[in-house]
Amino acid sequence: MLRKLAFFIAVIFVLPAYAQVPAPDGLLCDLLAYTDMHVLHGYPVQPSQATPSVRIASRQPAFSWAIPGYTADLQQSAYRILLADHPDTLLRDRGNFWDSDKVMAATSTGIMYNGKPLQPGKHYYWKVKIWDGSGLESHYSAPRIFVTDTVLTDYASAGYPLQKTDQLPAALYKRTNVYHADFGKAAFGQIKLRLQAAGDHDTVRVHLGEAVHPDGSINRQPGGTIRYQVYTLPLRPGLHTYQVQIRPDRRNTGPQAIKMPDYIGEVLPFRYCEIEGYKGALQQTDVTRVAVNYPFNDSAAHFLSADTVLNAVWELCKYSMKATSFTGIYVDGDRERIPYEADAYINQLGHYAADREFSMARRSHEYLLHHATWPTEWILQSVLMAWNDYLYTGDIRSARYHYNDLKAKLLIPLEGENGLISTRTGKQSPELLKAIHYNGKALRDIVDWPHSGILGLGKSEGGETDGFVFMDYNTVINAYYYKALRDMQQLAGALGNNEDAVSFAARADRMKKSFQRLLWNNRQKVFRDGIGTDHASLHANMFAMAFGLVEERHKASVASFIRSRGMACSVYGSQFLMDAVYDAGDAAYGLSLLSSQQERSWYNMIRAGSTIAMEAWDNKYKPNQDWNHAWGAVPANIIPRKLMGIEPLQPGWSRFRIKPQPGSLPWASLQLPTIKGYIRMAFRQSPGEFRMKVAIPANTIAEVILPVQNGAAITVNGETVKMLTTLGGGEYDILVKEK
């Protein structure tokens, strides 16, 4: 008996200790979670009904995972990946194509395949386990499957097919001879109707639109690019289901537009449907909208606060990320359906905040690398997007593969002897335009859009540039240049291109000195628009602040000037205004802008009747605007990044900052998806007291900066601490009381 007991005890001590280390989950292959997706005619189906719809085309795909739960201070110390060509092999804990063995590393994002050559058109199965800092071992994750493409290359970004979802109207009612269906929110889609007819000559008219009159009827002359279409539908005798074939629009199906794939068909953005002249009785189940979007997890991100306007703005902007994903590439709305860097930059940040999805942002960025648009600043934005891609995913393969393209996007040949760049000093060349993949005649500075005197705007409206005076060397373009140099410096360093990193740093240092010397107006204590003018616009100062070009001693005067100008920019410009306001620490002003109900506000989009972010604050500021423009959804990223204060500091969220700037907001809560898992944070404040609860994913470190005065008493999970600077994974209840 004693011998059996001794053997039992020995077995316990030699078996791996699994209990305290959760098995990884949230597995991604080439940034895709749903690599086993099967889609038929746009609808998700079971594997037996269709061939695999997601294909991995890289010879060396990259793998990532998260660690579930919020185990206190859990840091990964090692991992082991197994990859096999048959599920039974993997079930026996064998990786006949790749067994990484135990790799001593905390890395859990962007880990490149390093096994036997993968074969085209094959199924592969993989799983991973980890060890913590004490050497405790997890179980293996649940296995995941992926299928390789028929042709494999050194690198190719992966993506999902578009998906269709059948939606019933939120409300259906009849008035006189017309049935009115309201789907609650606008979406890009199609309409299906189940209708009964007695004879051969019955017809109905089907109206689709985004806007309605005060009486609830569709506005059939909405103006701008707010959508309305009408179709005459002949009916056949008996009960039949009809799908209206959406007419293509010549403007958004041209050579530069992203086309809808054949398995989806043409779509139209609409919220309302009217069926006119139908003689039968119509039920809600007889009217179906077929909504189209990129796969989106509606429950991935949450925000709620004491401010109902702020909550409505968040929902508008979060939903805009889903609704505008209808082509699978970020586009500028329905009017053109053309990708632009400026739209994509804002869309990228918003999409990261709304869903744990990274592939559409990467594919859009890479598309724009080879389909550049005309504004100077937007060329530079490609570098900013490349840095965001690496910062949010921890996967540097895209930057490595496109490194020379990114270097060209810096526009260094436009640099003058003063270290600043200009498009107006004769330095543009065919070689430069070719290197950045721009097919036009020349780049032009934009600052903001639209300008006065175009698109139906007269001088009284003034455009959206706050009177910016365009000079040969202008402040906005060079603020972008500085930010792009700094981002490229970090990318070069991460790739081991140290000589380039040193060169970019030196250029940025020199350029910053020139910027501050040549563009600072010491009398007015603000930045001027450019060399040769004393005019100071909101844009010159907000971009300088947002991109780190304002000296500490001048931040107060620049912040004061920014506040004095109000929302004197477009919805696009508001991205950088909000960054500038919060980076200056002006939380009260930031909150007032986010929750404003003025005409130039996000709430005005809701008041106008749109359920997707608009292209402009109001029709009068851009008479041809559309009602489905993701660059108008800036709060989708500003609320998590700046108001709640959660931003990545190191690639793959291995280290991030929590710096809430609530202003006067009494309470708020947030769930933020990241590649490392979900960050949960909530705060409540009252005079003299600030309380924050936060759940930090395992294998991350959070730097914490609390909105309190020095000398306050701080407790963490009931224990008093003198200073709070960093927190590891875990759940924390932080209370700050002023003494």
Helix/sheet category: alpha+beta
Count of all domains: 4
Query: Looking at the chains present, what oligomeric state does this protein adopt?
Result: single chain
Over the alpha carbons, how many angstroms does the gyration radius reach? Answer: 28 Å
CATH fold call of the largest domain:
Glycosyltransferase
CATH class call of the largest domain: Mainly Alpha
In the CATH hierarchy, the architecture of the largest domain is Alpha/alpha barrel
Total DSSP E strands: 29
SS field, number of helical segments:
17
Shape call? globular
Q: Tell me the strand percentage band.
A: 15-25%
The end-to-end span amounts to 64 Å
Low-confidence stretches: 1-15
Residue share in helix: 25-40%
Report the average pLDDT across residues: 95
Summarize the structure.
This protein is an alpha+beta fold and 739 residues long. The protein is 26% helix and 25% strand. The protein is globular, with a radius of gyration of 28 Å.
What does this molecule look like?
The structure is a single chain. 26% of the residues lie in helices and 25% in strands. It is an alpha+beta fold. The protein folds into 4 domains: 2-153, Immunoglobulins (Immunoglobulin-like, Sandwich); 163-293, Sandwich (Jelly Rolls); 302-643, Glycosyltransferase; 656-737, Maltose phosphorylase, domain 3 (Sandwich), CATH 2.60.420. The strands form 6 sheets. Strands 19, 22, 23, 24, 25, 26, 27, 28 and 29 form a 9-stranded mixed sheet that branches. Strands 11, 12, 13, 14, 15, 16, 17 and 18 form an 8-stranded antiparallel sheet that branches. A 5-stranded mixed sheet has the order 4-10-9-6-7. The longest helix has 22 residues, at 498-519. The relative contact order is 0.10.
